[in-house]
Automatic annotation (TrEMBL):
<comment type="pathway">
    <text>Glycolipid biosynthesis; glycosylphosphatidylinositol-anchor biosynthesis.</text>
</comment>
<dbReference type="GO" id="GO:0006506">
    <property type="term" value="P:GPI anchor biosynthetic process"/>
</dbReference>
<feature type="transmembrane region" description="Helical">
    <location>
        <begin position="913"/>
        <end position="934"/>
    </location>
</feature>
<feature type="transmembrane region" description="Helical">
    <location>
        <begin position="20"/>
        <end position="39"/>
    </location>
</feature>
<dbReference type="Pfam" id="PF01663">
    <property type="entry name" value="Phosphodiest"/>
</dbReference>
<feature type="transmembrane region" description="Helical">
    <location>
        <begin position="570"/>
        <end position="594"/>
    </location>
</feature>
<feature type="transmembrane region" description="Helical">
    <location>
        <begin position="513"/>
        <end position="532"/>
    </location>
</feature>
<dbReference type="InterPro" id="IPR002591">
    <property type="entry name" value="Phosphodiest/P_Trfase"/>
</dbReference>
<comment type="similarity">
    <text>Belongs to the PIGG/PIGN/PIGO family. PIGO subfamily.</text>
</comment>
<feature type="transmembrane region" description="Helical">
    <location>
        <begin position="875"/>
        <end position="893"/>
    </location>
</feature>
<dbReference type="GO" id="GO:0005789">
    <property type="term" value="C:endoplasmic reticulum membrane"/>
</dbReference>
<keyword id="KW-0325">Glycoprotein</keyword>
<keyword id="KW-0808">Transferase</keyword>
<keyword id="KW-0256">Endoplasmic reticulum</keyword>
<feature type="transmembrane region" description="Helical">
    <location>
        <begin position="538"/>
        <end position="558"/>
    </location>
</feature>
<feature type="transmembrane region" description="Helical">
    <location>
        <begin position="765"/>
        <end position="784"/>
    </location>
</feature>
<dbReference type="InterPro" id="IPR039524">
    <property type="entry name" value="PIGO/GPI13"/>
</dbReference>
Amino acid sequence: MALLSIFPTNLMRLCCVPSLGTLFILITCIQIFGTYIFLKGFLLTRTTFEERGHSRTPWDRFPLSAPSSHQLPIIHPGPPFRRAILVVIDALRFDFATSHDNNDRHYLNKLPVIQHLMDKHSQSSLLYQFRADPPTTTMQRIKGLMTGSLPTFIDAGSNFASSAVQEDHLLHHIKNRYKSIYFMGDDTWVRLYPEVFDSQRTFESDSFKMLDLDSVDNDILSHLWPVVEDKENDWNLTIAHFLGVDHCGHTHGPSHPNMARKLSQMNDVIKRLLSQVDKDTLLVVMGDHGMSPEGDHGGESLEELMSTLFIHSQRPLVQPDAYYQQLSTRIHDARSKRLGYDLQSISERLDYDASRYPVVAQIHLVPTLAYLLQVPIPFGNLGAILPDVLVPEEIMDNKIRSLIYMIGQFRTNALQVYDYLTYYSQTTQQLDFSPELLEPIVQKIYTADGLLHDLASQSLFIESVSNSSDLSADQLEGFQAQLEHILLCYDAFLTSTLQYCESIWAHFDAGSMMLGILLLGLGLCLSVWLMISVYQAKFSPALLLIPLFTVSAAAMLYSPLFEKMTTADWIGVLLLTSVGIVLWSVFGQCVLLFDKTLVLLIGLIQSLTLGSNSYVVWEDNGTHYILSTLVIIWIIQQGSRASALTELIRSVQAPLLFLIVVRLSSMVGQCREEQFPYCQYTPDVLSFDGQLQTFFSVAFIIVVSGLVVYLSVFLKHKLSDKVLVRRVYELSCTVVILRIGQDMYQNTHEASRIIPKVVSQWIDVYLPRLVYILCLFCTLYVLYRKSYISSQKSWSILFIWSATLAMLQRPLSSLIILGSTWAISLLDGDPSNLLLRLTILQYYGHHLFFATGHQATFTSLPWKAAFVGFDQMNYYGGMVLVTLSTFAGYLISWLGWPILSQTLSKNEARQPLYLLMLMQTIPTFMCAIFVFVLRRHLMTWKIFAPRFLFQTLLNIGAHMAAILLERRL
């Protein structure tokens, strides 16, 4: 203390007494850093290597346990294909390619050429259900299709910033063997594999012009036909990645006349390509992922996972004997069972018999193409070769010899996976890939080698390989059964490895996750204490000890136990922990009231539901019930203060109207995949098809227009003589109405109702840009114009931004966002129950998130919003617009915060901002705990992880909003 006495008291207070805004900033820093540390331990990527695959002989190192002199004959495959055409139809869901008895949906029976080839050329045509590995974003699918590797959760965020693939991939080996490679279409390929494609043979197109259904496809066709139909062009591999089907899904959904047109176009493309397919040419038609019922992708619903793989050539691709086809079916069935493919669910969801076609993982294509083109399998491949295509150089009647050939190809594949698994274990030293944990999997390949070695040591068996006619029927059947068992053992090794890597690929750093939870908990405690305490700023001498404590504690705590923590991370953790402890001294006596208790209790109950996957799935309904409960409590509080009937009616009028608004808006939304078939929302799709639809559409436009007129009058009342804001609001709402009308026309099936391109360009691009400019200008004008009093500023900014955010929504959602300004006015009142009404406002923002058609899933992200004001993809602008569209409900509620607080004095109005942070801090902290505890849960990556990532963004956004509002109040 003697040391502290040399500092002037006033100077110490000046330097060390934090204001409320400073407290908000410090708590925000604690939350952000805690989230960073937690995510550092949770969202980790798979380790990749630059090692290259190499050619192997089937009996290399045979058997693995102890190589011996007993060798089996090498049976050569048929000649490799000299040419290959790889056609990728983006978002080609499997039911798009199959035949159906009805045509009640626009995407059915539009690819008849595939079924025709399957019926007429069954020996040279193969059709598979091509199951994608989630996430079903295009970049991850193209990576998997060429590397044979599994995607990691965190890679989904890089779908819009594709970087070159560093690990081994199939195109690298194809380029080494086949020099002439042509590419047309989605430029993601060029960004991922820039070293493969020659600029003279590459015709890439921008993949993010989602509203354009034809430009990319037409550009592909303008280059494709001159290449493949030129007899003098000695091309080897041609890749064409069509985007029209995918863009049609994003824009119109799967069942739309434009989808029928695009699929029919693809059918014509395949028919024309068939004329170029001979015995030396392989045609592969496939989709990279499926399509959700709304036309999107990115998640892991069955509709998004089930794509199409079709392989065709003039050369036989399968052995003619039914015995081999039955054996292949056994292998496919064993894989489906081991990997958990639910054929019944697929049949029910996609309305076809899934048992008719094999289900194969997309990464199985990699070793299969490597076999057909006779190039090395990529080093990091985890796929298993498709058994159907294993046709030897000469088709023989000797089943023993044919089975040995199949086993040899399976063993070559298994050796590659075994080498990769061993290398990964030795290089990364991860506990999940320790030799002890891998032993049960590796034992399968040892078992297969041992059984085959036992057979190879029998002279009778070796003789039967050359001539099986001397064997008795029982001997032949016995050898065949043993060989089939060995083949299935190799396959079990391949699929078990894939299954294991799928289950544990994310290597969690539990230490970092626990430290992150600790910091999030510290921020929560500070927020709670700030809420229930009387603020008293005073000096804390302990603040001066922070640097010394931080440095010494970091030196002691740094330990290899926390393998992902760096020195800088430790210093940050300890520094913010020290700050949090010192901040405790700025609070005075605890004052706990009923409203505060209710707020904390409601926040805790809602947060606890995040630990149940069922509650997360049905969070939209849960939020509706919580919000309605809070409004009913508000009604009771208001009614209990009334002494007469007229006063009672007047006091409960606002909460009753607000309750009606909540109930009506809860009828609109978007269903999660897991909610089917029990979820029913009012469809947010309007059109001018038929008299009834036209009537509803016109009536809806009249309702929106009437609401805008009413709100404009309401705004005039609030702003009196302030004309500029009202005019900007009216202009912005006019653009919203025009966009609603355009959306209705685009959903109309009649070709004559197409908007002229010039008009569409103005509505889609130029008018939205004008709204953005006016919104930003008016916001700055109102904030810095002294003639606007505080309440006028609050109402002006709320109305301006509500129109801008409504422009980014679908029609019904636009109506809800516009009407939310009036709903917020219902919450305005006396300060007696301010905490309760602020809590209602907070949950109203959460309710608006669901009511405007959003869910905490990647599939529900509003990608269309990225093109409002842009005719092509702008990465940063698109990111901002998608964020604004997603968080529109929360932004509306945050902008309403100062309106409800305007009855308080300037200092008092800042105090309730702690609630804004607290109501997001509690669920963030609890969500982090649940994700940590359930990190190996079956639904972690599908349900809990997306919800946690969404919550972290929401938490940081709420803290930033509190800081900005504190500066303006």
